[in-house]
Write a structure and sequence with these properties.
Structural class: alpha/beta
Radius of gyration: 15 Å
Order of helices and strands: EEEHEHHEHHEH
Number of helices: 6
Helix content: 40-55%
Largest sheet: 4 strands, mixed
CATH superfamily of the largest domain: Winged helix-like DNA-binding domain superfamily/Winged helix DNA-binding domain
CATH topology of the largest domain: Arc Repressor Mutant, subunit A
CATH class of the largest domain: Mainly Alpha
Strand content: 15-25%
Strand order of the largest sheet: 3-2-1-4
Number of domains: 2
CATH architecture of the largest domain: Orthogonal Bundle
Length: 168
């Protein structure tokens, strides 16, 4: 069973899902389309069952956002069970990128000892279902911001917000 709830933060609203007290889903709600976010979670759950329980979800997401954006508290418990070994390697390495910093797809590939795998890194980042908490928005291309599963407008806004927040 996945328990879910909507969570509002300084960087937007998210539909958050938890499985066995671990975050498994953080989906940006864009243009007030809660129905789209909920349908995506239902598809992700693949019949596992989804139940609303904001009281259960909110404290976990609050702690995860404090860690992801400010490095306050302990790193969150994350459920990467849906990913391949390579995707999990990419997602764990994304957690090492500090707020306000970025890394290129190529640099991540080299860090993973796969120097020719920049596109594979980009695909793995695109498969991330834990927006902001697993900061795939901090991966950029050599000649620009690169892509983002949830749209370039949100990626640019997140990068600008983090840069301003951590500029001091």
């Amino acid at each position: 069973m996945i328990f879910c709830g909507f969570y509002k933060s300084d960087v937007g609203e998210f539909l958050v899902g938890i499985r066995n007290v671990r975050l498994c889903w953080v989906f940006p709600v864009q243009e007030a389309r809660r129905d789209v976010a909920r349908a995506a979670l239902e598809a992700f759950a693949k019949g596992e069952g989804v139940a609303e329980d904001s009281a259960r979800v909110a404290p976990l997401m609050e702690a995860a956002m404090d860690w992801a954006l400010f490095r306050k508290g302990a790193s969150p418990d994350l459920d990467f069970s849906g990913g391949t070994d390579f995707q999990r390697q990419v997602w764990n390495t994304l957690l090492e990128i500090a707020p306000g910093e970025v890394m290129t797809y190529g640099a991540m590939a080299r860090k993973l000892a796969r120097p020719g795998a920049a596109r594979a890194v980009a695909r793995a980042a695109g498969a991330n279902v834990l927006a902001v908490v697993v900061p795939c928005h901090r991966l950029v291309g050599m000649q620009g911001v690169g892509g983002y599963r949830w749209g370039m407008k949100l990626k640019k806004a997140l990068l600008e917000w983090e840069k301003a927040l951590h500029a001091s």
